[in-house]
Amino acid sequence: MTDAQWEVFSYEGVIGAAVLYFLAMLAYFFELASLRSVPAGEDVDSHRTAMARRLALVLTVFAVAVHLVALVARGLAADPNRVPWGNMYEFTVAGTFVVALIFVLATLRVDIEWLGPLVITFVVAALMAAFLGLDDTLLPLPDALNSPWLVIHVVSAVISTGAFTLGALLSVLYLVKQRSTATTGYLARVPEPKVLDRLSYRMHAFGFPVWTFAVLITGPIWAHQAWGAYWNWDPKEVWAFITWVVYAAYLHARATAGWRGRNAAVLALVGAATLWFNFIGINFFSSTSQHSYAEGAAEVRSVVGVAATVEPAQEVGVVVGSDHAGA
């Protein structure tokens, strides 16, 4: 297959995965609708409800598989072949894949299928935003980014971002469940707040060391290769460190001060806000980031170690929705 064919195949794969996720979301919503008047402690004998639950999970598994194929095809479409996170579009596609994959793997060990409607709705919304609103131009990486440390750095960043996102969803669900008095419907069947709090902690406890590895080890090593310095007080470096501090405070407070429940959930959501501001906000509000690379007539901008090329006539730092000359 040619590079152009791989690129088209990748687009079709993303669309196919999005359609499967959407069908899974509908199946989850059908299940929720059928349970809206059933008390929480009552067993459900409806064959259609059980079928909808199983169908939703099966569709999610197939969607994750198609999602993976789309990511691989995206990397094969580049010339030369590269890892599939060359801009915000690719990083979003990779990040949503990790979120869905962690959810599927977690269901094998923990009964968290009840989280499916939230997770799949988030993935569908993120994929729609990526496909409709983000610059998806396929370009080779500049020399500064063409390093094995990029692969290690971004893989760890994507994995930890996925874990933190799931932890944030659990924290939101905790805050809503804590105030809910519903005896029927979705919230009534969600586990007790203390269970949600414990699951959220586990997700953050898993994501934090991976984020530490990405931000404090592989990131500085890669920065030294690219810029000749381990730390440059770049906006993205600073915000990545702020995110690390917030999550470190979250875990430390739970371990030493016994923080549980609402305070821990709020602090976890503050961490998620800094994480996503670093991913999205810096690209809008900062034009001084060293995560910009000049190569000939183009400015190459990275997102958490991810690069996207824009023409010099465009405003530096704006990646989302940017149009390229001749496009």
Provide structural commentary.
By secondary structure, this protein is mainly α. It has a domain at 1-140. The protein has helices spanning 3-34, 47-77, 88-107, 116-133, 148-179, 186-189, 193-227, 235-257, 261-285; strands at residues 292-295, 298-302, 307-310. Strands 1-2-3 form a three-stranded antiparallel β-sheet, with no helix packed on it. Helix 7 (193-227) packs antiparallel against helix 8 (235-257). Mean pLDDT is 80; it is low at 292-327.
Highlighted features:
single chain, 327 residues, mainly alpha, 3-stranded antiparallel beta sheet, 9 helices, 67% helix
Order of helices and strands: HHHHHHHHHEEE
What share of the residues does DSSP label as strand, in percent? under 5%
The low-pLDDT segments are: 292-327
The level of helicity is 55-70%
Structural category is mainly alpha
Number of strands: 3
C-alpha-based Rg, rounded: 21 Å
With helices defined by DSSP (H or I, 4 residues minimum), what is the helix count?
9
* Average of pLDDT: 80
What coarse outline follows from CA principal-axis ratios? flat
* Widest sheet: strand ordering: 1-2-3
* Main sheet summary: 3 strands, antiparallel
Distance between the termini: 23 Å
